[in-house]
Write a structure and sequence with these properties.
The protein has four helices and three strands. It is mainly alpha-helical and 109 residues long. A three-stranded antiparallel sheet has the order 1-3-2. Helix 1 crosses helix 2 and helix 3 crosses helix 4. The longest helix has 38 residues. The model has no long low-confidence stretch (mean pLDDT 86).
C-alpha cells in the first residue's frame, strides 16, 4: 500500500487515518500495541506523527492487513527481523510505484 501524504514534519491522527483508510481508533490501538509507534503529543494531548511513525505504521499495516499477521505475530516479526522486513517492504513499495508508472504509460499508448 502506498500512502499519499504531503511532506511535513508532523501529521495529525485524522490525516494519518484517512491516508490509511482506517478509523482513528485503530491508529490509537496500534499505538498502544506496538512499541515502535511513539507519536508526540501537544499540550492538548493531540497526537503528532513523524515521518518515521508513518513508516512504522505502513509496516504494521502491511503485516497485519495485507499479509494477515496476528498482532502478536506482527510484534514478534518486527522484533526479530525488523530491518529485513523493512528492506523487503521498501522494495515492494518501489516496485508498486514502477508498476503504476508502467500502467500509466501503457494507457497512454
Amino acid at each position: 500500500m502506498h500512502i499519499e501524504l504531503p511532506e511535513k514534519r508532523y501529521y495529525g491522527i485524522g490525516e494519518v487515518a484517512k491516508a490509511f483508510g482506517v478509523n482513528t481508533s485503530l491508529i490509537r490501538f496500534w499505538e498502544k500495541e506496538f512499541d515502535v509507534l511513539k507519536p508526540k503529543k501537544n499540550a492538548k494531548g493531540n497526537r503528532k506523527f513523524t515521518p518515521q511513525d508513518i513508516q512504522n505504521l505502513q509496516l504494521i499495516y502491511h503485516l497485519v492487513k495485507e499479509r494477515g499477521f496476528t498482532l502478536e505475530g506482527a510484534k514478534t516479526h518486527l522484533k526479530e527481523s525488523k530491518q529485513k522486513t523493512l528492506s523487503n517492504f521498501e522494495v515492494i513499495q518501489k516496485l508498486e510505484l514502477v508498476k503504476a508508472e508502467l500502467v500509466k504509460i501503457k494507457s497512454q499508448l
